[in-house]
RNA sequence: GCGGCUAUGGUGAAGUGGUUAUCACGGCAGUUUGUGGCACUGCAGUGGUGGGUUCAAUUCCCGCUAGCCGCC
């Protein structure tokens, strides 16, 4: 069995082990996002030093550029990007949703903007954001691309409805997602039965997950989860929740998923989230996460500060070990500060005194990083990114040991 | 001393006799959740100064001041 649940902590966090071709990973874990085969600004060796054990890349983007054929020719994605630990690829289902959203906002540029993405029973037709060329993805094609990339965990093509979708649209998206998952599995098994799947020396095969959709409809989510579990997959993802968060509450769904998804399989909450979201979700039984927030926020100047540090002066005599997990309520362990704000221009402190990331241990001041970011110096983006990723990965370490 | 030109947000530039004066960069702030790379959204100007013409002037005219160019 690729996954084994070792124990449930008092907090209800599931500590387990996932064994895949490029290594063994302990849950719960966070996957830094490296859409185009690179976690922006961070080299593989640095990722390892931060404690990353698996990263996420994107099928849609790598298919369009440089193309899975080229990557396969050069030895697969691991060899291509010089990362020898596990990789999970997102299927491109989210990009279909995201492109459709962007196209309707691009007023004027395209008269038939909504024609940018066409979903039919067989698959999805879309227009490349790079050169306008037309492409067609089927569930089978997306499996083939991911096998060519040689990744450890494959995600099937799904339909991710927007937060504004009608109940009918959500129902149809859910039905298609189940149908496509079934086709993906069939195709995956047919290809995986070959003796040397993508030429890997490892005897371990890659894993195929399924994605639960259904919007905020508890019944639909339950039916979708049951249908997918009936088909049987290596793990189960919960999709479509990291969307329109300001107007929608995902927690009822997350709680339900934690209760009904197969206990002996990893659960992946896609696209989530803030550190506080992740803490809460692990307590509801989620095992895997990915999110662009730490890396994107860093590039825009925002960095995480553990609140236990902000309270330092008050808690001095208590000799408290700083941890985002202290406090029973959970959440509210982190504060986000924007180094581009004028108040940090002359701030001599490091981002977070209790942080052991490369930026903080080297002693780079907030003032210096602020200067770098204002001057558009690459090092500024890198330092902020390293810091935020370290915060996330350290949080996961603490969650596993709690 | 004489002649000419120019004076528009922090900077550099547009533009117009009449509702909220445009753009870039900079500044200030906000947003960001399966990443269309440092993205996006806001905010800040009583239009050098004093008069005049006009129903109405940033826009037309005059004085003053400042800067630039040329001549003596």
Describe the structure.
This protein has 15 helices and 16 strands. The protein has 402 residues and is α/β, with parallel strands linked by helices. The strands form four sheets. Strands 4-14-13-12-11-10-6-5 form an eight-stranded parallel beta sheet. The protein is globular. It binds one RNA strand of 72 nucleotides through residues 31, 33, 35-36, 40-41, 56, 58, 61, 88, 90-95, 97-99, 102, 129-130, 155, 158, 160, 211, 237, 239-243, 245, 268-274, 277, 290-293, 295-297, 299-302, 338, 340-342, 373, 376, 378, 380-381.
Overall geometric form: globular
> Can you list the strand order of the major beta sheet?
4-14-13-12-11-10-6-5
Count of DSSP strands: 16
Structural class: alpha/beta
Count every helix, treating DSSP H or I runs of 4 or more residues as helices.
15
Q: On the 0-100 scale, what is the average pLDDT?
A: 88
- Low-pLDDT runs: 103-115, 312-321, 327-331
Largest sheet: 8 strands, parallel
Residue share in β-strands: 15-25%
Distance between the termini: 25 Å
Subunit arrangement of the protein: single chain
The Rg value, from CA coordinates, equals 21 Å
* Helix percentage range: 25-40%
